[in-house]
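Let us practice reading a record.
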Amino acid sequence: MQVKNDIQTALTAEIKIVPKWAWALAAAGFVGMQLLLNVVVAHQPDAPPAWGRVLLGLLTGVIFGCYLLFIGYVSGDARRRGMSSILWVCVAILIPNGLGIVLYFILRKPSRQDSVSAHSATTN
């Protein structure tokens, strides 16, 4: 059962990288999508039915919230790796369709833990 505890510990450590402002922004984005689709769109003459607005609100809110959490992760992880967090957050926001986030994950520097474990694996 040690493997399960190691996985939970690693996941918890990665989640802690996301700054508190990103969590607050993601929550506000989720609530904002609910208000937009269930209050503003509901008054439009060609609005979808109530059940459709609720499902659409949940779906768009979760997607938008996850996008904001990814931006927060990029900010925290870039800072942890000694990279320019402002630059990478701008790249993640300005390159559309989430490609800036994917680009960050492709081009980021290895962390100190990654390089230490790779070095110890090659020496054994």
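A brief commentary: Residues 88 and 104 are 7 Å apart (CA to CA).
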